[in-house]
Amino acid sequence: MTLVSLIGFAGLCLMLALIPGPDTFLVLRISLSNVRSGIAAGLGSGTGTLVWAALVGLGLAAILEQSAEVFRWIKIAGGVYLLYLGVSSFLKARKAAKEGMAADGGQEPLRYSKRAAYGSGLLSTLLNPKVGLFYLAVVPQFIPHNGNTLGMAMILGVTLCIIGTLYLTTIAILSYKAMKWLRKPKVNKAIERGSSAVLAVLGVGVAASGATS
Fold first, then answer.
1. Where are the alpha helices (DSSP H) in 59-148?
2. How high is the pLDDT of residue 185?
3. Is pLDDT at 192 greater than 70 in this prediction?
4. Rounded to an integer, what distance in angstroms lies between the CA atom of residue 192 and that of residue 199?
5. Counting Cβ atoms within 10 Å, is residue 36 exposed (0-12), middle (13-18) or buried (19+)?
6. Cβ of 190: how many Cβ atoms within 10 Å?
7. Separation between Cα atoms, residue 60 and residue 57, nearest integer Å
8. pLDDT at site 102
9. What average pLDDT does this structure show over 121-131?
10. Which of 63, 75, 55 has its CA nearest to residue 157?
11. How far from chain centre, in Å, is Cα 25?
């Protein structure tokens, strides 16, 4: 693989990262409580991309391309998981408000442990078959003829992982800093409900798309 090819792939990964998706909204949602938890969610998402890279390198992810049924059920599972995250986040936020987690008359953002945040980011990416199909569609174009398919796929996977994780880390830091200026109860409540609703809507959309495909 030439340096030019690797730079071209990196540019493609950057464009992909800049398009808001479920992982972006998930990191944004978690970062409202703690920037480290948001970064952990981004690292979990990055780990998920490496798993997909390994699957493509080993040829296992080709099942997604050949079997519409497998793709449909994985897509539905991913949508249901996102819906669960959105609904559970909304219910937890309401419960926290009722139990008086507010400080000085304001509502403190719902907190996530770094382990739970990492797991959420990891599962969100693993249950998104579009990541695997992205590798199947793009990676072969960058693997030299008679080259080490698994090795090249992992190099490209690491590239996507680094770029995606750096982007999500930036999102986590910026959103957390922004929350310092947006701690008013009404604004915080709107963000909590809005981000939870986005996750829920994304989940319904993905699940519905999978069910009808």
1. 62-66, 68-98, 114-126, 129-138
2. 63
3. no
4. 11
5. middle
6. 12
7. 8
8. 46
9. 86
10. 55
11. 8
Cα 151 versus chain centre, distance: 24
Q: pLDDT for 131-186, tens place per residue?
A: 877 777 777 777 666 667 778 888 888 998 999 999 999 988 988 877 666 555 66
pLDDT per residue as tens digits for the range 87-108: 776 776 667 666 655 444 444 5
**What one-letter code names the amino acid at 115?**
R
pLDDT digits (tens, 9 = 90+) for 6-53: 888 888 788 777 777 788 888 988 887 788 999 999 999 999 999 988
DSSP 109: P
What is the SS3 assignment for 7-64? Answer: HHHHHHHHHHHHCCCHHHHHHHHHHCCCHHHHHHHHHHHHHHHHHHHHHHHHCCCHHH
Burial class (CB in 10 A: 0-12, 13-18, 19+), 119: middle
Q: Are 53 and 153 in contact (CB under 8 A)?
A: yes
Task: Kindly state the helix (H) or strand (E) to which residue 212 belongs, with its residue range.
Answer: helix 185-212
- Whether 201 and 194 have beta carbons less than 8 Å apart is answered as no
Is residue 3 a contact partner of residue 146, using CB atoms and an 8 Å limit?
no
- Collect all residues with Cβ–Cβ distance below 8 Å to 107 and sequence separation of at least 6: 96, 97, 101, 185, 188, 189, 192
